[in-house]
């Protein structure tokens, strides 16, 4: 394997791009797959978990890796596009081995794993040979000593550890988007998901939960203490929080809503009154709402909010006071693309689109989809019978409900596995 360093630290591989021989990027590394061996022998590295551009995670055997270099990995270009599924004999190095508590053989001291190194032996096999650990400090606010030890100099990897930390795995994935981190959590065990969720701050966990299937959302929320679960729900967008609360047992849902801030809970309760596959059930109650005397500069300042999804940021809604949903009388919508062409001092009321009738909260998913398609919109207002704005439906929420419930987890017949991709000769990723 030309161009490969003799030792590669695994945590530094997280997120690295993977290129084919022509220099085209095929994906990013999400984890390293290894197989534990008996007798304390170093684990054999079987391959890499690579996320390709469809957000699917596939397995890339080390036999298909031609170069591991600073900043990138190069493959032979031959990929098996089947979704990666971990086998019982395999371990995910980043997801499962980082943050493990191990015992140092020479001293008997305990330490936490913060990285590992793999090396290619003369047999051309890659092995996990080094373990980077940090001892616990006995002094107040002092970090313990760090060591890079041989695999054979530590023990404890074969034992089940309760309360495993997540500091170092989160450091490896720090720059990852919430949707990508959700994909990482999805592929881990329930135990490991619980531990990582405990280490995330409320806002980050809320963002990640919004990208996970509902059954895993419920599982993670159930693993939190009640007060923290309520805090996390407050950080979620009201429509996503309502969808999650709707999946909980009635008594649990009511207890969490009682612990939430009254204004946040009120938004969620209101959304829970609508049927799931209606405009009311799909909408968010927090679009960008401005008064009629707001300027174009005001509108552009509001849509710069990094917490807004692209669909919500594409449109503003102008209403009479009050400006919180349900608002005063709805006046019209302002398309950001149009506002960008206007002087910053121009009033938004002068450039509003007032011709579109809004959706009604009981409109069906089919009606909502047809409305967005007919008018080429990525979002649409939802109005009550008195012409007040209740919220907005975005195209991403519609797609979530049009796709199968398990679209995040599985491939479907109407989403083919790139038939023009040649099938590799070596696809058995636990074969020696």
From TrEMBL:
GO terms for cellular component: membrane. It comes from the Bacteria. SUPFAM superfamilies: CBS-domain pair, MgtE N-terminal domain-like, PRC-barrel domain. PROSITE patterns: CBS. Residues 405-432 are annotated as: Disordered. Residues 405-415 have a biased composition (Basic and acidic residues). Gene3D superfamilies: CBS-domain, MgtE N-terminal domain-like. InterPro entries: CBS_dom, CBS_dom_sf, Mg_transptr_MgtE_intracell_dom, MgtE_N_sf, MgtE_transporter, PRC-brl_dom, PRC_barrel-like_sf, SH3_actinomycetes. Residues 352-412 form the CBS domain. Keywords: CBS domain. GO terms for molecular function: magnesium ion transmembrane transporter activity. PANTHER family: MAGNESIUM TRANSPORTER MGTE (PTHR43773). This is Mg/Co/Ni transporter MgtE. It comes from Kribbella shirazensis.
């Amino acid at each position: 394997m030309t161009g490969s360093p003799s030792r590669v630290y695994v945590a530094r591989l997280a997120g690295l791009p993977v290129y084919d021989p022509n220099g085209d990027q095929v994906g990013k590394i999400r984890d390293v797959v290894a197989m534990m061996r008996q007798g304390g022998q170093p684990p054999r590295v079987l391959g890499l978990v690579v996320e390709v551009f469809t957000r699917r995670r596939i397995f890339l055997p080390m036999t298909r890796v031609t170069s591991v270099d600073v900043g990138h990995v190069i493959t032979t270009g031959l990929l098996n596009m089947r979704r990666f599924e971990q086998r019982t004999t395999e371990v995910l190095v980043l997801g499962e081995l980082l943050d493990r508590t191990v015992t140092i053989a020479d001293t008997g001291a305990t330490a936490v794993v913060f990285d590992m190194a793999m090396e290619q032996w003369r047999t051309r096999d890659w092995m996990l040979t080094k373990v980077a650990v940090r001892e616990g400090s006995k002094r107040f606010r002092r970090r313990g000593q760090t060591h890079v030890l041989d695999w054979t100099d530590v023990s404890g990897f074969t034992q089940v550890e309760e309360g495993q930390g997540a500091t170092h795995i989160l450091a490896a994935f720090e720059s990852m988007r919430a949707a990508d981190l959700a994909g990482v959590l999805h592929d881990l065990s329930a135990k490991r998901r619980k531990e990582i969720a405990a280490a995330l701050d409320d806002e980050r966990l809320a963002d990640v939960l919004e990208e996970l299937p509902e059954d895993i959302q419920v599982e993670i929320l159930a693993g939190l203490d009640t007060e923290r679960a309520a805090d996390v729900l407050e950080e979620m967008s009201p429509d996503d929080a309502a969808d999650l609360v709707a999946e909980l047992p009635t008594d649990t849902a009511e207890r969490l809503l009682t612990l939430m801030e009254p204004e946040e809970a009120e938004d969620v309760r209101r959304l829970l009154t609508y049927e799931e596959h209606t405009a009311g059930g799909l909408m968010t109650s927090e679009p960008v709402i401005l008064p009629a005397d707001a300027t174009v500069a005001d509108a552009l300042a509001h849509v710069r909010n990094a917490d807004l999804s692209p669909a919500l940021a594409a449109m503003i809604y102008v209403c009479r006071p009050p400006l919180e949903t349900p608002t005063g009388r709805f006046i019209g919508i302002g398309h950001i693309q149009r506002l960008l062409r206007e002087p910053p001092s121009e009033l938004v009321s002068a450039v509003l689109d007032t011709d579109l009738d809004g959706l009604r909260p009981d409109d069906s998913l089919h009606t909502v989809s047809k409305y967005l398609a007919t008018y080429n919109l990525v979002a649409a207002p939802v109005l009550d019978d008195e012409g007040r704005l209740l919220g907005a439906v975005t195209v991403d929420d519609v797609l979530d409900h049009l796709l199968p419930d398990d679209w995040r987890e599985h491939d479907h017949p109407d989403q083919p596995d790139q038939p023009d991709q040649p099938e590799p000769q070596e696809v058995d990723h636990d074969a020696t």
